[in-house]
Amino acid sequence: LLTLIASLHAWRNGPLPENREELYNGAVDLLLFLWERPKRVAGTRQPSIGEYLSTDRNEIRKVLNELAFRAHQDQPEINGTADLSETRLISALLRLSPDRTLNAVELMDYLSQRAGLLLPRDNGVYTFPHRTLQEYLAACHLTDHEFPEKLCELVRADFERWREVVLLASAKA
């Protein structure tokens, strides 16, 4: 996380935000930029994920927010980062594309070659680089859906799991 914050400082070419919510927003933007940008593989230009899926970055971000929320909600323990199945990730991303002929295997290969907002943890499993980024993305999802009612319901049911999410969602709202 410290390396990410230092990278964010260099990427912004200026001071870091003082507010935690703004800091995490900047970190997510940086990681999404790195994860999503076009790159060269074996001398060939590989398109960005947005180009590949024929969608924009905001739509990708909404899907990642929802995936983080679901992963956080379903995580058996309340420490560390949640597992995100490759199947769930690929399915959610493919739904963004109007092109129904896209190959899931190609998309899996594409994601496995990129580090950023999601990291491969194990065979068929991805995770977020840090729990607070997972919590921040979950907070972003909640501020866009049934806020604040849904968040209040979750906090009442499991305060420890949702404590950081509620703080980040409140700051974002």
Quick tags:
two-stranded antiparallel sheet; 5 strands; 173 residues; 9 helices; three-stranded antiparallel sheet; globular; mainly alpha; 9% strand
Structure description:
The protein has helices at residues 2-12, 20-36, 49-53, 57-74, 86-94, 104-112, 131-144, 149-157, 159-172; strands spanning 39-41, 44-46, 84-85, 119-122, 125-127. Helix 7 crosses helix 9 and helix 8 runs antiparallel to helix 9 (159-172). Strand 1 and strand 2 form a beta hairpin. It is mostly helical. The chain contains 9 helices and 5 strands, in the order H-H-E-E-H-H-E-H-H-E-E-H-H-H. The strands form 2 sheets. Strands 3-5-4 form a 3-stranded antiparallel beta sheet. A two-stranded antiparallel ribbon has the order 1-2.
Helix content: 55-70%
Question: If you average the pLDDT, what whole number results?
Answer: 89
* C-alpha end-to-end distance: 24 Å
Biggest β-sheet strands, sense, barrel: 3 strands, antiparallel
What fraction strand? 5-15%
User: Which residues sit in consecutive blocks of at least 5 with pLDDT less than 50?
Assistant: none
* Number of distinct beta strands: 5
Overall geometric form? globular
Order of helices and strands: HHEEHHEHHEEHHH
